[in-house]
Write a structure and sequence with these properties.
Elements (H helix, E strand, L loop, with lengths): L1 H4 L2 H25 L5 H11 L5 E3 H7 L4 H13 L3 E5 L7 E5 L1 H21 L6 H18 L15 H4 L4
Antiparallel strand pairs: 1-3, 2-3
Helix pairs in contact: 2-6, 4-5
InterPro entries: HTH_MarR-typ, MarR/SlyA-like, WH-like_DNA-bd_sf, WH_DNA-bd_sf
Organism: Asanoa iriomotensis
Pfam family, one: MarR_2
């Protein structure tokens, strides 16, 4: 029984969770200084990095830590704040797209230098360039296994295809 407590798989998941928690705390303070929550920042980043700076709402939910109702609430709030716009899908009345406005791009652009400095200080700066490249490959492999829809809508695709889309993530 004691061997189970020492299993390296438990250690790996624990270290990952501790790392994410630590980074999230450091990022939250910096983002708050720009009047963004971590979720709002994530939504802006996903949209800015998507074709046409927009995604179907369902794809945005799949790519973030939000449910479909959660992404609707966040997009509603960000739309009221002028950071996002929503438009109906021309081919499917049940779907709509969320896209970044000029004000959203400006807010993100103002936020990124400090955010990148924190990433460098607490994350990527801890790894040599070759280690970072290898680590990113590992993270993509794990991400694609646990969240195969994480790249839904990438490059204009409307359906999740982890094998084809992982290359573009």
């Amino acid at each position: 029984m004691a061997e189970l407590h020492e299993d390296p798989r438990i250690t790996a998941v624990g270290l990952l969770a501790e790392t994410v928690t630590g980074l999230s705390a450091r990022f939250a303070a910096q983002l708050a200084g720009h009047k963004l929550s971590a979720v709002e920042f994530e939504v802006l980043m996903r949209l800015v990095r998507s074709p046409g700076h927009e995604l179907r709402m369902t794809d945005l939910a799949a790519q973030t830590s939000l449910s479909t109702s959660g992404v609707t609430r966040v997009v509603d709030r960000m739309e009221r704040d002028g950071l996002l716009r929503r438009r109906a899908c021309p081919t499917d009345r049940r779907s709509s797209y969320a896209g970044v406005t000029g004000a959203g791009v400006t807010r993100l652009t103002e936020t990124l230098p400090g955010h990148l400095a924190l990433i460098e200080q607490w994350f990527t700066g801890q790894l040599a360039p070759a280690e970072l490249e290898e680590f990113l490959d590992y993270l993509r492999r794990i991400r694609d296994a646990v969240n195969p829809c994480a790249t839904a809508g990438a490059n204009g695709n409307t359906e999740a295809d982890p094998e084809a889309e992982a290359v573009n993530a």
